[in-house]
Amino acid sequence: MGEQERMVEAILFASAEPVTVAELTDRMPHGADPAEALVHLRKRYEGRGVTLVRVGDGWAMRTAPDLGFLMQKEMTETRKLSRAAIETLAIIAYHQPATRAEIEEIRGVAVSRGTVDQLLELEWIRLGRRRMTPGRPVTFVVTERFLDHFGLESARDLPGLKELRAAGLLDNRPAPGAALPGEDEGEEMAGQSELFED
Predict the structure, then answer these.
(1) pLDDT tens digits for range 52-104
(2) Are 71 and 29 in contact (CB under 8 A)?
(3) DSSP result, 49-86
(4) CA distances from 143 to 83, 97, 150 (A)
(5) How far apart are the first and last CA of the chain?
(6) What CATH number should be reported for the domain whose range is 83-156?
(7) What is the layout of strands, in order, in the sheet containing 139-142?
(8) Which end of the chain has the lower number of beta carbons within 10 A, N or C?
(9) Per-domain boundaries in the chain
(10) Is domain 2-65 given the CATH code 1.10.10.10 in the classification?
(11) Is the pTM here over 0.70, yes or no?
(12) What per-residue confidence (pLDDT) applies to 148?
């Protein structure tokens, strides 16, 4: 098992992308058990500067989360996403699989082809299965690259409403028709809670 751990470690260390157990099995000698080696390797890396993490169906070596600040100088931001791209990405992440019509319904405006193309080019979203509805519209889902970039094992690990509110990432604007500041506070709070209920 020690030799198998070394093989898995070498493959993961050399790979820029997460590697699945099936891919490890294909690369390793016949009879090897990469799944078992991953279990041992993950324990071995606990508490170290580098950890073994699951990303979707794959596994990858990543810097320990508490040491991420050491890498800040290494990271450069080459392109910022537009507000439309961020909103579109968030809708796909939280509502996947989502069609263009569903994205437009939630955003309240048309989604430009450029916005979707940019997210596809970044490989943060991909085409999903077609819906079995009239017109058979294509759906969009997030990719493992998206999960990896944000340090998520799966889309289920996305922050919920409470976490987003605590981080100050949600507007506290009242819902349309709710009381304005200075009017009845109870009505204003009711309007805000309705805004985030759905």
Answers:
(1) 999 888 999 988 888 877 777 655 556 678 888 888 988 898 888 999 999 99
(2) no
(3) SEEEEEETTEEEEEE-GGGGGGGTTT-----PPPHHHH
(4) 20, 11, 11
(5) 50
(6) 1.10.10.10
(7) 98-99, 139-142, 125-127
(8) C
(9) 2-65, 83-156, 159-197
(10) yes
(11) no
(12) 87
